[in-house]
Amino acid sequence: MSAERAGxxxxxxxxxxxxxxxxxxxxxxxxxGRGEGNDVALPxxxxxxRLHAELECIxxxxxxxxxxxxxxxxxxxxxxxxxxxxxxxGDTLRIGRTTLGYRRPDAEETQERTVVAGRPVALxxxxxxxRGVLVALARPYKHGEFATPATNQEIAEExxxxxxxxxxxLRSLFQRFGIEQLPQNQKRSRLxxxxxxxxMLTTRDL
Length: 206
Fold this sequence. Notes:
Blueprint lengths: L1 H5 L3 E5 L5 E5 L4 E5 L6 E2 L11 E6 L2 E6 L7 E3 L2 E2 L2 E4 L5 E4 L2 E6 L24 H11 L13 H8 L3 H14 L7 H14 L9
Parallel strand pairs: 3-4
Antiparallel strand pairs: 1-2, 1-11, 3-5, 5-6, 6-9, 7-8, 7-10, 10-11
């Protein structure tokens, strides 16, 4: 890989056809989005905004910036950012459904992955009832990822709550995971996916 041999920072991702791509980071500011005119164009991903975020190099360090440009948010190591986050070698960005790895081969020392706004949320950080709602929502995924989240009625019956109470707890969870702006028919499955991807839930919890 020429970028790695040259010691230049680069992004590694897979395009819409599953092919691995390496994008060398050059210049001081790069736009990221679904539009073909972006420096980092992700036209295959419908969850990416036309202008989604920016990558900016400051004093030799690359940062990712999302000041409300995107609808679905920008995530670094599983945490949604607000504003700017510095990138370190080995960090993972998620923009829409696309995962981009940040590599900086010339990093002089091993660096810990960036944690945005503190450590990732753990299941035990949630209030007990919210925790129960999340587990019940994801329970159908116990036997495989191709499942449908539990309905509000099913959750209510399992936890002996009213349907309105379940809805209120889900709204809080959507906000906590930064997905409240997604279309209603996508929020529930995305919430389960985020919890599983971040390691907040495992099949043993279900």
